[in-house]
Amino acid sequence: MALSTEDIRDIAKLAKLQINEDELDRYKQELSRILEFVEQMNQADVENIEPMAHPQDMIQPLRVDEITETNLREKFQCIAPATQDGLYLVPKVIE
Questions:
Q1: Total domain count for the chain?
Q2: Is 37 within a domain?
Q3: For residue 31, what are the domain limits?
Q4: pTM above the 0.90 mark?
Q5: Which of 13, 44, 87, 94 has the smallest number of Cβ neighbours within 10 A?
Q6: Residues forming a β-bridge with 87
């Protein structure tokens, strides 16, 4: 599928891109090649192929959900300018 120069202008406008006139021909060739490749992929026979969520049939190893860090909130809050009930107080920025 070959794109026209006007197609490239329309795509650039939709994507809110500024393309120089001297670059239009290069974009036209590259995007046309991409669409041709997609067309080749669409012609592949996938009738008897089951869809897969991942190309490799493996299970993601998960780490044990356990606490590894100690609670240092009091240590950090003692150097904070202002705290209240375990929360950091900050100046109001919205009026």
A1: 1
A2: yes
A3: 5-42
A4: no
A5: 94
A6: 84
Residue 32 lies in a domain: yes
- Scored b (16 or more CB within 10 A) or e, 29-67 reads eebbeeeeeeeeeeeeeeeeeeeeeeeeeeeeeeeeeee
List the end-to-end C-alpha distance of the chain, in Å, as a whole number: 56
Q: Which conformational region is residue 70 in: left (phi greater than 0), alpha (psi within -120 to 50 degrees), or beta?
A: beta
Tens of pLDDT, residue by residue over 46-65, are 899 888 888 887 888 888 99
Let me know if 4 is exposed, middle or buried by CB neighbors in 10 A (0-12, 13-18, 19+). Answer: exposed
Per-residue model confidence as pLDDT tens digits over 2-26 = 899 999 999 999 999 999 999 999 9
